[in-house]
Amino acid sequence: MKVFVKAKAGQHQEKVEKISDNSFAVSVTARAEKGLANAAITRALAAYFGVSQSKVTLVSGYTSKTKLFEIS
Fold first, then answer.
1. What's the pLDDT at 18?
2. How many CB atoms lie within 10 A of CB 69?
3. Its pTM surpasses 0.90
4. Which domain holds residue 9?
5. 56: closest CA among 19, 44, 21, 25?
6. Radius of gyration for the chain, computed over Cα atoms and rounded to the nearest angstrom
7. For 14-62, how does the pLDDT look when each residue is reduced to its tens digit (9 = 90+)?
8. What are phi and psi of 69, to 5 degrees?
9. How confident is the model at residue 70 (pLDDT cuts 50, 70, 90)?
10. What is d(CA 41, CA 7) in angstroms, rounded to the nearest whole number?
11. Buried b (16+ CB within 10 A) or exposed e, 5-44
C-alpha cells in the first residue's frame, strides 16, 4: 500500500492523523536535518500500521514536506 504523508518536523509531540484513505499528516519531534525526521516518520508509521520498520519505505520526497511511503 502506498500512502502520501505531509511531514511536520520539530513538533512538540508525535502523532499520525488520517486525512483520507491514503493520505496522512505525521508530526514528529525530530528536526528536519540529516534524515532524522524521515527516520522518525518511518517509526511513527510503522507503529500506526502495526508493522516493523523494515516494512515502511520512503519512496519519494526525501527533502520535501510531502512524501510518499510504501507499507508492505
1. 97
2. 23
3. yes
4. 2-71
5. 44
6. 11
7. 999 999 999 999 999 999 999 999 999 999 999 999 999 999 999 999 9
8. -115, 150
9. very high
10. 8
11. bbbbbeeeebebeeeeeeebebbbebebeeeebbebbbeb
Q: How many structural domains does the chain have?
A: 1
CA distance 39 to 20: 23
pLDDT, tens digit, 9 for 90 and up, residues 3-25: 999 999 999 999 999 999 999 99
Structure-block grid coordinates of residue 37: 525526521
The CATH number given to whatever domain includes residue 37 is: 3.30.1200.10
**Contact assessment for residue 30 and residue 40, using Cβ atoms and an 8 Å cutoff:** yes
User: Which set of grid coordinates corresponds to residue 9?
Assistant: 518536523
